[in-house]
Amino acid sequence: MTDTSDKFAPIRDFYDNEYYAQGPGGKSLPWHCRKIGKQLGSLSGRAVLDVACGTGEWLDFFRSRGASIAGIDLSHKAVDECVRRFPGGEFYCGPAESLPFDTGRFDLVTCMGSLEHFLDKPRALNEMKRVAKPDAKFLLLVPNAGFLTRRMGLYGGTQQVKAREDVLELAAWERLFEDAGLQVVAKWRDLHPLSRSWICRGNILSWPLRAMQALALTTWPTTWQYQVYHYCRTSHD
Question: The domain that contains 92 carries what CATH number?
C-alpha cells in the first residue's frame, strides 16, 4: 500500500534520493539499542509495529526476541529493504499519520528517532494508540531541545533537518504524548555517542572533545540529554 499524497512527496524524495542514497543499511542493531530493547521484557509471541521502521534494524531485534513484526515507512527504498530482509513480516510504504492496520492489534508500538520529522505529530500518535491493544506499551525516541550542547550553540540538528525536524523540550513532548492518551512510565538515555563510529567522526582534532561529550552523557541529567526514550502505556484516566 503506497500513499501518494503530495504533501509527503518532498520528505519521501529526501529519504529515497538522499538519506538512502548509498543504498539501504540493513545493519544489526547497535549495543546501546539492544540494551534498551532488553528492558522491554519478553516479546515472545507478541505483535510489534515499528513506525518509520527504516531498513529494519529494530525489527530484526524484535524478531530475534520472538515477536511477529510489522513496519511502515515513508521511503520506498527502506520498505523494499525490509521486504527483502523479512519475508514473513508485514510492511507498507506510507505516512505514520494514516496507519493501514486494524484497531487494537499490536502489543508494542515503537517509533525511534522519527516523530520529529512527521508533519502531523498528534495525528500520528493517535494512530499509534488506535492500532495498539488496550494494555500495549509504546517506545518513543525523541530529540531534546534542552540538549546542553544544542543550548550552547554547538549543535544544529541532524542531516534530516533538510527535510523536516521539529525539536521540542522534553516537557513539550510529554504533553503531546499525554494529549494522545499515552502515559510516560519511564525515560531512558540514548547513549549512541558511546561508540567508536560516533567519536571518530569528522576532523581528528575534534575526537577528544567528542569522546568527552559521549562520556558526559552518561552522567548528565535527562533534561540535558541529546535524545530520550519514553516508555509509555495507554492512559486509563
Answer: 3.40.50.150
Dig out the grid coordinates for 140 from the structure.
518513543
Total domains present in the chain: 1
Residue-range definition of the domain harbouring residue 172: 6-192+225-234
User: Which residue type occupies 87?
Assistant: P
Residue 213 is assigned to a structural domain of this protein: no
Interacting residues of 92 by C-beta distance below 8 A, sequence separation 6+ = 1, 2, 71, 72, 79, 100
Residue 91 falls inside a structural domain: yes
Residue among 170, 165, 161, 168 at smallest CA distance from 220 = 170
Instruction: Specify the 3-state DSSP secondary structure of 34.
Output: helix
pLDDT tens readout for residues 188-228 = 998 877 778 878 888 898 888 878 877 887 888 888 888 99
Tell me, yes or no, whether 166 lies in a domain.
yes
Task: Output the pTM of the full model.
Answer: 0.88
Q: Which residue intervals of the chain are DSSP H helices?
A: 9-14, 31-38, 57-64, 76-85, 121-131, 148-151, 170-179, 196-199, 207-216
Question: pLDDT tens-digit profile of 45-58?
Answer: 999 999 999 999 99
Report yes or no on 216 lying in a domain.
Answer: no
Cell of 66: 520472538
CA 217 to chain centre: 19
Q: Given this model, what pLDDT does residue 2 score?
A: 44
Instruction: Tell me the C-alpha to C-alpha distance, in Å, between residue 210 and each of 49, 153, 170, 194, 206.
Output: 34, 15, 23, 10, 6
